[in-house]
Design goal:
Number of strands: 8
Number of helices: 1
Structural class: mainly beta
Strand order of the largest sheet: 1-2-3-4-5-6-7-8
Radius of gyration: 17 Å
Oligomer: single chain
Helix content: under 10%
Length: 162
């Protein structure tokens, strides 16, 4: 609990001392990682202010016995480290559905889920319109069997800025 209070204090303290930096108005790309079994996700970022943005990620998984869909929305604060290097942190939620059907073991199951998400990462804005980032996204399941455990997701993203 002390760690959570410390992280939240640092996060909100940094908001008041954030220096201005250039974050792209819009960025579209791929977020590649485990993503709680989803693998790659389509990722979109939209600038809300010089220090804040909204990120929306959509994941879809289709397999012969299994399919799932997940939509995640995150509000992020962005701080400049040096030049094109930024770090960011935020919070949000994810919602989705899944279905499992196996004739081999005669199991059928499906449902919906809701996750509370955190996000912290580092990114680099190139002089060309590309952005690369590495982030950590813990997801805590609130509703549903699919996301009922805590998932600690590490992912690499590549986005085109426009």
């Amino acid at each position: 609990m002390k760690r959570i209070i410390l992280v939240v204090s640092i996060l909100f303290g940094g908001v008041f001392y954030a220096s201005a930096q250039q974050i792209s108005d819009n960025a579209l790309g791929l977020r590649l990682g485990d993503n709680d079994g989803f693998g790659g996700e389509i990722s979109y970022q939209h600038k809300l202010s010089p220090e804040n943005r909204l990120e929306i990620d959509m994941g879809y998984r289709d397999h012969s016995n299994y399919n799932a869909f997940k939509l995640t929305g995150l509000y992020q604060w962005v701080w400049n480290i040096d030049g094109g290097f930024n770090w960011y942190a935020g919070f949000g939620a994810g919602i989705g559905s899944w279905s499992y059907d196996s004739d081999f073991v005669n199991v059928k199951d499906d449902g919906m889920f809701l996750n509370a998400d955190g996000n912290v990462g580092i990114e680099y804005n190139f002089d060309v319109p590309f952005l690369i980032s590495l982030d950590f996204r813990p997801e805590i399941g609130i509703i549903g069997d699919y996301g009922k455990d805590t998932d600690l997701d590490l992912a690499l993203s590549v986005r085109y800025q426009f």
